[in-house]
Amino acid sequence: LGLAAHYLPIRVDQVGVVDVFVPYASSSVPSRMSAKPSLLIVLSAAAEGVSAQSFYHSYTQCSTAFNLQIATPGGKPMDFVGLDENNIRWIQDFRMKPYANPAKLESIDGARYNAILIPNCPGAMVDLATSGYLAKILQHFCAETKPICVVGHGVSALCCATNQDKSWIFQGYSVTGPSVFELVRRKDFANLPVIVEDFVKDSGATFSASKPDAVHVVFDRHLITGQNDQSTLTAIQNLVLCCNARK
Residue 7: CB partners within 8 Å, gap ≥ 6? Predict the structure, then answer.
């Protein structure tokens, strides 16, 4: 595939945890790979809805490998949380770009995209976890086994995707996400609308988590989940690898 030789070898179980994954890029890219796949980045439109650090890593890493489209419920602007000296300048510059204006999630046709990414979005528990429009997109992606990558609180967005019999479309999958030990540090823990770990287990899937703030990624079939902000880069690297393998 051209890029395969540029990935360092790693050990990956059939369904398992990927904790170390270090790709390095070549400066020469074959012309036959110039047609980049399309990636849909779904973000929350809730107050303090998007992790600035997770989105920064997501966008900068994916922009070279994919044609990107951002979408939010109602096409509303994103509200970033966790701004710091490492990302605030980039976020400010990004807001000035025309492509920073998200499309309406309600108008998105999942068939037009090769992969979907939901970075760490605390607001996903508020708006994406109950979105019927996102559910339809995820149902299409599951039916076509297209790559799905979700990180941190973004994993709660998967809760919306149920079958007609109310069963979860990710039943039987192995998934990670924010652990209860990470969630209890939030002041609003008692009022959280969804606890991902409980939902996953109650819905017939397998949940795993590492220590709080540790890098922990689970890759099961076409679904890639990351535990937290710190897992964003590793999750995206595996998303790129998954998409390259499908070419």
Answer: 23, 24, 241
What confidence tier does 12 reach under pLDDT thresholds 50, 70, 90?
very low
Inter-residue contact 226 to 220 (CB < 8 Å): no
Contact 198, 129 (CB under 8 A): no
pLDDT in tens, 69-125: 999 999 999 999 999 998 999 999 999 998 899 999 999 999 999 999 999 999 999
Please tell me the predicted confidence (pLDDT) of residue 23.
42
pLDDT, averaged across the chain: 88
pLDDT (0 to 100) of residue 34: 54
Partner residues linked to 206 by β-bridges: 174
User: Which phi and psi angles does 170 have, rounded to 5°?
Assistant: -100, 15
More confident call, 20 vs 88:
88
Q: Give per-residue burial for 39-48: e unless 16+ CB within 10 Å, then b.
A: bbbbbbbbee
Helix 88-95 × helix 52-62 angle, to 10°:
70
DSSP string, the chain: --SGGGB------SSEE-----B---S---GGG-SPPEEEEE---STT-EEHHHHHHHHHHHTTTSEEEEEEGGGPPP-EE---TTTHHHHHHHHTSGGGSPEEGGG--GGG-SEEEE---GGGGTTTTT-HHHHHHHHHHHHTT--EEEEGGGGGGGGG-B-TTS-BTTTT-EE----HHHHTTSTTGGG-S--HHHHHHHTT-EE---STT---EEEETTEEEESSGGGHHHHHHHHHHHHHHT-
